[in-house]
Design goal:
Elements (H helix, E strand, L loop, with lengths): L1 H4 L13 E5 L2 H7 L5 E2 L10 E5 L7 H12 L7 H8 L3 H26 L4 H9 L1 H36 L7 H16 L8 H28 L15 H11 L6 H7 L6 H27 L17 H37 L9 H24 L4 H28 L5 H31 L1
Antiparallel strand pairs: 1-2, 1-3
Length: 454
């Protein structure tokens, strides 16, 4: 869970790692290898040529970096894509998704270049080049984006749980009950300080998502074969609703918080651009194929969550649908505490100024627990407000929270970090910034109008 403890390069440790004593000289430290360090004990005498640091994490190899990046980009957002492709159109949507993937790759690599010049977190880089206010803006955007994801997850789990219980003959309860159930179960998870304890649950979530995706791919193909094509004419470009698609497309590629921690944890960081290129190319192909297949299989009847299009018949089909729904309920719920963790730590840092490590009193921990419960309650409250407008809500999160992180901040930092770069690079950076502002304002207006019209 190193990548979540260091989300966007920040130090979000709630439980400090043990400290070790190492030589100050980096060359000596490298030559001595693992024997260069020894556990530091409080009060221990330190020589002048030594220093105390946190015990470093094990460096990861190229293959593991690809796996970690892939997990960062494949989550529940893929389930909204068939409906999003209906909003965009069967021609426009794949083209725009490919464009977004390319721009994200370029933007992420800009951030990596800035970090090479000024090592630190996403917020630190912004603070170095634009002042403290930019660091606060970056942290605010990170917190809002993670909070928005979790609100969407809450709506997803509540809706699917209600459908599963109803299909099994259970009670038909109001949405507030299902959201309350989500809230009650979420609270004890968010009170856990040691995020490494979520390692097994994250693995379970990944397995559930993979199994669910294989089933959905297979069923979409089956529908197309049985119906000998799409049930109705597909729109090439949906001029009325494409704005909603744009926000969802941006939402689907929001993984910039993992770029710095994964890059910094690699044994050979120079391999990171190649790993990121492979992953984003694969993810783009996966997202486009899934969106196209889902839209083609169900046409204009495709639901906001494609799971709802699976047949609710009897026997095997019903059991298959319920099983996939339960898999995704488990996967998304187990993912939610991890996604909310950076938001909680940022809020705690603002409220208590305790982002640094060290022992805290029981009173302080109690205050932090209250803040964490209030954050959970805020997630539930926002989810209740957006319960019937999930597709619009996802687009809103993509435009308002994700667009600045993906398309505006990295090129802004790059312009300031490399003032003597070639003119064409400056033009590229400025163009990406303008694209980010266009996505931000246009889709924000569209989603607000859609909220008011529904």
């Amino acid at each position: 869970m190193y990548e979540m403890d260091h989300f966007a390069g920040e130090n979000f440790h709630s439980i400090p790692r043990r400290s070790v004593v190492v030589p100050r000289d980096l060359e000596k430290r490298k030559s001595m290898g693992s024997i260069a360090s020894k556990v530091f004990l409080p009060g221990q005498h330190i020589e002048e040529d030594e220093e105390v640091i946190e015990e470093p994490e094990e460096k990861i190899q190229f293959g593991k970096a690809i796996g970690m990046l892939f997990k960062a980009f494949i989550a529940s957002g893929i389930l909204f894509l068939p409906n999003a492709f209906k909003n965009g159109g069967i021609v426009f949507a794949p083209l725009f998704m490919t464009l977004v993937a390319g721009l994200c790759l370029y933007s992420f690599l800009l951030l990596v270049k800035c970090r090479e010049l000024h090592p630190g977190s996403f917020g630190d880089i912004g603070g170095h080049f634009y002042g403290r206010w930019m660091r606060y803006i970056v942290l605010f955007a990170i917190a809002i984006s993670q909070f928005g994801f979790c609100c969407g997850y809450c709506i997803f789990v509540a809706q699917q749980l209600a459908l599963v219980v109803s299909s099994l003959g259970g009670a038909h309860l109001d949405k507030i009950v299902w959201i309350a159930i989500f809230f009650v179960i979420l609270v004890p998870f968010t009170l856990i300080r040691n995020i490494s304890k979520f390692g097994p649950s994250a693995l379970i979530a990944d397995l559930c998502i993979i199994v669910g995706l294989v089933y959905l791919y297979a069923y979409d193909i089956k529908e197309l074969v049985v119906n000998q094509g799409s049930p109705n004419t597909l729109m090439l470009f949906n001029k009325q609703d494409f704005g909603l698609f744009v926000g969802t497309a941006v939402f689907s590629f929001e993984g910039i918080g993992m770029v710095i921690p994964i890059c910094s944890s690699m044994a050979n960081p120079k391999q990171f651009p190649r790993a990121l290129t492979i992953v984003l190319s694969t993810v783009c192909a996966l997202l486009v194929s899934f969106g196209c297949l889902g839209y083609a299989a169900y046409g204009n009847t495709v639901e906001t969550i494609v799971l709802d299009n699976l047949p609710q018949g009897t026997g095997g089909e019903k059991a298959g649908k319920n099983a996939v729904q339960i898999l995704y309920i488990i996967a998304i719920f187990l993912t939610t505490p991890l996604m909310l963790f950076p938001c909680i730590r940022i809020i705690e840092g603002c409220v208590f100024h305790v982002v640094g490590n060290g022992p805290r009193s029981k009173t302080q921990i109690l205050k932090e627990n209250i803040v964490r419960i209030l954050v959970d309650f805020a997630v539930a409250a926002v989810a209740y407000a957006g319960y019937t407008k999930l597709d619009i809500f996802i687009s809103f999160v993509g435009s308002f929270a994700c667009a600045p992180l993906l398309f505006i901040f990295p090129p802004m930092f790059h312009l300031r970090a490399f003032p003597d770069q070639p003119k064409w690079r400056k033009v590229a950076d400025v163009s990406l910034i303008l694209f980010g502002f266009l996505v931000f304002f246009y889709t924000l207006v569209v989603t607000i109008q859609s909220f008011s019209n529904h």
